[in-house]
Design a protein that fits this description.
CATH architecture: 2-Layer Sandwich
Radius of gyration: 17 Å
Shape: globular
Largest sheet: 5 strands, mixed
Distance between the termini: 57 Å
Number of strands: 7
Helix content: 40-55%
Strand content: 15-25%
CATH superfamily: STAS domain
Oligomer: single chain
CATH class: Alpha Beta
Number of domains: 1
Amino acid sequence: MAPADFKYLRLSRVGDVVLIEVMSEDMQGPDRVKEFISELTTVVDQESARPLLLDLGRTSYFSSMGYAALFKVVKQAKERQRPIRFCNMHPDVCPGAEIVGLKLVVEIHDSQKSALDAFKQCEEKRSGEQKDSESAPALYAI
């Protein structure tokens, strides 16, 4: 499935991050959610290890199956060792996300900017740790 074939997602890139915008106003019903999961899975399987940012600002309703789809994409991303964050969660979706414990499995940011800054800080920290380990003297056992 090519990005142009996506019914519920719009993809773009912000720096090294793959921005996934959910374009549907609601995510309910088994057929719709199955297609949504299929599209998300396709994105997670692409682009090697690029971080993923899922923008939920346009979606004002998730059914229980819709929330399950969000958990599934987080699980798949983590299995592939791809950093993932969510942003712009619609105010009507926040209570349900809180009830199902979504914040326990993924960082949720108020804006794209704060999520992108968090990715950047994480990458800078990782780069700093690699430089420190490269410059540290080797220890040898005698």
